[in-house]
Structures are given as structure tokens and as C-alpha cells.
């Protein structure tokens, strides 16, 4: 005979290639459902009065290890004890003649009976938050939308709900009913099994996923609170995975030389793109999204404020060695992007490209791990090592702090243009000296 489930066993069940349903003999009609994605939930199976089979989803599994003081409710995260208590209540209702399916349908209708109520369920509120706030004020609003379970087409248009995503799971759940317990369970699920509807790309725990989910929900509920849609932000006081310590990784001179030589062999678009990251110190998305109309005739690269982190237009005087790299980039006729493989969007596939670079640089894996963002830090540290003043380095990196903050920064912007050009040329010459090659031959972009 199958033994009753235990809290430890529930936590240990692993996902398979197909959905698993594990009966709990400790409560009649109760099952634990384990999806291939790793998501776990509680389900009841029985027959309706007419004999037709039916099922009722009680809610997602709660792995927090603590019991809520409130009575368990359908749709909320449930521990094993909570699921059993709720299942017993459902069975009592059925025994007295209550139609639990009709009751659930009636609750859903009441939630959307008036326009105001319909707009205050999670699905509608998430759409409004993305359209009115995230899209207008954040660069990575599409990523925010994905975490909320919404997928926006690249060519515009209305979003769709991601299968198994948050917008689908909480589609008609009033935002006023979402509490800290719900938020914590969702953050914990994102850390352990992946973001609902998105899954996971790495094994084991991911604090980064948990932090991103926590930030996304906190921003949304903060916005809802400002607009008096909720009376409190349920994210306040909820555990958020701690941020990693500040990175200090800087590539050594030998590593810079290996990287440059590897990029020469890697070819376009990734080879020259990584070299440009090292030479200019600009952010990955800024370089990857470079457009042909941003490259000016005077040899500078003007990044519009819409593409910079601080929303400020940024002028980058490209050194001669950077212009030489463009000779290896094959442009696609009619495409405004410099680095692309399909003429539709900036180049992607960074994880695979980075693995190729690592394998080519160091087949024996003796070089300490480094990230693409470390190239920006290497550029800044390298310029400091060759005597570039700190405020000029800040100007090159488009940092607004210290001497460049406030009114002084605005008036010094034009003044620093010449200094930035000299700084980047000196840094490029230093890199070229490390590599040990001859002076770069400047060639134009070639069309493909």
C-alpha cells in the first residue's frame, strides 16, 4: 500500500520528461502534480454527481517550511498540511451537496463583474504596468514583461500570455489578494525551478532569477500602490536573495593578448565585437546594438540616450584601431545594425560565443573565470594604469558621478571630448603593444 506523503518526500520529488501525479493516501482524492519544468502543485480528482470525471487545482506547492496562520484558500501556495486541510473542506462541501466547481466559477465571475474589478486582476494590472510604466521608463521592459508572464511581439502589437507564466497562473486573481506569502513562494520557485513559463537555463539554485523576480514584482506593486490600486506592497519584508559581492576581475596583460589573438581567429561578428568592447569600455548592449547611423563622419560614435543606461546621449571618439575592426564586419544591405546575423535584431548567442572564446584561450581551463562585463572594467583599470585621469575615465565610460555630476558635468561634456579621444587612442596603442602587432590599417566598412 502506498504510504502517505511527507513534507520531506514532497520536496524531494524530481521532475521527469512527462507530468507526474503522486497520490497522497493521507487525504482522499489529493494528488501532488510535478511538471517537467519542476513546478509542483496540488490537485484533487473525483467524479461529478452525474458521474463525469473532474479535477480541481488547489494551488501551487509551498516549500517555505512554515504554516500560515490563515485558513488555506484555493489558488494560494499550500504546504502538505494546508493542502490536506483544504481537500478535507472540499470533500465536506461535496458531501453536503455544494457544487465546488460552480462556487469557483461564481468567484471568478464576481472578480470581473465590474470594469474596475476586471482591471484590478493580476493579468490586466500586469499589462497596464508594462504599457504605462515599464515600457516608457526602462530599457529592458520586454524582460520585465516576460517575468510577469507576457510576451510582446518584436514587430509591435498586443502581448500574449506565456504558457504556464505568471499572467496565466494569476490571470483573474485580484491584486489585492496577493500577499507576502504568495510573493515569497514565487521568488523561491524562481530560484529553485525557474521563472514560471520561462523555465531555467542552468541547474541548481539561481539567486539571480529570484532577485529579478523580486525586483519585478516590487516595482509593479509599488506602481499599483502609487495609483491606489492596492493598499500595501506585499513585497515589503519578503526575503530577497542577496546580491553577489562586487566583482574586481581585471584581465591581465597576458590574458588581453590571448583574448585579442583569439578574437582575430574567431571571425565576425563576435571577434571584432569583443575587441571593440575591450577598446571602448562601453556596455555590451550598447556595442551589440550599434547602428550605422550612429557612426559619424568625424570618426565618433554617438550613442543616443534611448540606448544608454543613464538615458544620456554619449559621444565615443573611436580610436584608429577600433575603425580597423570595422573592416572585418560584413554589413547586410538595407540593415541599420552593424552587428547582426539575421538583419532583424542585434547579435545574440553570447553564452555559446563566450564558451568558444574560453576554450580557445585556455584549453586547460587554468585562466580564472571572467565575464564579458569584465572587459569594461579591464578598459577602465588599464586607462588608469597608463595615467588617464579618473574624471576622464568616467567620461569615457559615461558615468555621472564625482566631477561630472550636476551642472559641472553638463558644462564639461564638450570640454572632455578631446580628452576622451586622447585617452582612447592611448589605451588602444597600449593594447596594440600588448598584442605585439603592427599598426592597424584603417579600412572602411564593407557591404555584404
Ends apart, CA distance between termini: 69 Å
DSSP E strands, number: 10
Q: What gyration radius follows from the Cα positions, in whole Å?
A: 28 Å
- Write out the CATH superfamily name of the largest domain: Intergrase catalytic core
| pLDDT < 50 runs, ≥5 residues | 403-413, 438-448
Number of domains: 3
Enumerate how many helices there are, as a single number: 18
Quote the beta fraction: 5-15%
Q: Main beta sheet: strand number and arrangement? A: 4 strands, antiparallel
Oligomer: single chain
Query: What is the CATH level 1 assignment of the largest domain?
Result: Mainly Alpha
- Average pLDDT works out at 84
Q: Assign an overall shape.
A: elongated
Alpha-beta content class: alpha+beta
**Strand line-up across the major sheet:** 1-2-3-4
- Into which percent range does the helicity of residues fall? 40-55%
Order of helix and strand elements from N to C terminus: HEEEEHHHHHEEHHHHHHEEHEHHHHHE
CATH architecture of the largest domain: Orthogonal Bundle
CATH topology of the largest domain: the name is: hpI Integrase, Chain A
Amino acid at each position: 500500500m502506498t504510504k502517505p506523503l511527507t513534507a520531506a518526500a514532497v520536496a524531494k520529488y524530481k521532475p521527469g520528461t512527462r507530468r507526474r501525479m503522486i497520490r497522497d493516501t493521507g487525504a482522499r482524492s489529493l494528488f501532488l502534480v510535478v511538471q517537467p519544468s519542476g513546478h509542483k502543485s496540488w490537485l484533487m480528482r473525483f467524479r461529478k454527481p452525474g458521474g463525469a470525471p473532474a479535477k480541481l487545482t488547489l494551488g501551487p506547492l509551498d516549500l517555505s517550511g512554515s504554516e500560515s496562520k490563515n485558513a488555506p484558500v484555493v489558488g494560494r501556495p499550500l504546504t502538505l498540511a494546508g493542502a490536506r486541510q483544504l481537500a478535507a473542506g472540499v470533500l465536506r462541501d461535496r458531501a453536503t451537496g455544494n457544487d465546488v466547481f460552480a462556487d469557483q466559477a461564481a468567484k471568478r465571475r464576481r472578480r470581473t463583474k465590474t470594469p474596475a474589478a476586471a482591471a484590478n486582476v493580476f493579468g490586466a494590472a500586469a499589462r497596464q504596468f508594462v504599457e504605462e510604466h515599464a515600457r516608457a521608463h526602462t530599457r529592458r521592459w520586454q524582460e520585465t514583461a516576460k517575468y510577469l508572464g507576457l510576451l510582446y511581439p518584436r514587430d509591435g502589437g498586443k502581448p500574449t500570455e506565456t504558457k504556464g507564466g505568471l499572467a496565466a497562473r494569476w490571470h483573474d486573481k485580484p491584486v489585492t489578494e496577493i500577499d507576502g506569502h504568495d510573493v515569497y513562494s514565487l521568488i523561491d520557485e524562481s530560484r529553485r525551478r525557474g521563472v514560471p513559463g520561462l523555465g531555467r537555463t542552468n541547474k541548481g539554485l539561481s539567486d539571480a532569477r529570484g532577485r529579478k523576480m523580486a525586483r519585478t514584482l516590487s516595482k509593479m506593486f509599488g506602481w499599483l500602490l502609487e495609483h491606489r490600486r492596492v493598499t500595501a506592497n506585499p513585497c515589503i519584508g519578503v526575503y530577497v536573495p542577496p546580491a553577489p559581492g562586487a566583482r574586481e576581475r581585471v584581465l591581465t596583460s597576458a590574458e588581453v593578448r590571448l583574448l585579442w589573438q583569439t578574437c582575430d581567429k574567431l571571425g565576425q561578428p563576435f571577434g571584432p565585437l569583443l575587441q571593440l568592447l575591450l577598446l571602448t569600455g562601453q556596455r555590451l548592449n550598447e556595442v551589440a546594438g550599434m547602428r550605422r547611423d550612429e557612426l559619424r563622419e568625424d570618426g565618433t560614435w554617438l550613442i543616443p540616450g534611448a540606448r544608454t543606461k543613464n538615458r544620456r546621449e554619449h559621444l565615443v571618439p573611436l580610436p584608429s584601431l577600433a575603425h580597423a575592426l570595422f573592416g572585418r564586419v560584413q554589413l547586410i544591405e538595407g540593415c541599420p545594425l552593424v552587428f547582426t546575423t539575421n538583419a532583424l535584431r542585434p547579435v545574440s548567442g553570447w553564452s555559446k560565443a563566450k564558451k568558444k572564446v574560453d576554450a580557445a584561450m585556455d584549453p586547460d581551463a587554468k585562466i580564472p573565470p571572467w565575464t564579458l562585463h569584465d572587459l569594461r572594467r579591464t578598459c577602465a583599470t588599464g586607462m588608469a594604469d597608463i595615467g588617464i585621469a579618473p574624471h576622464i575615465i568616467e567620461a569615457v565610460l559615461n558615468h555621472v558621478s564625482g566631477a561630472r555630476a550636476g551642472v559641472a558635468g553638463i558644462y564639461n561634456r564638450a570640454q572632455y571630448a578631446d580628452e576622451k579621444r586622447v585617452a582612447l587612442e592611448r589605451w588602444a596603442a597600449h593594447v596594440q603593444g600588448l598584442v605585439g602587432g603592427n599598426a592597424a590599417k584603417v579600412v572602411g566598412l564593407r557591404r555584404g
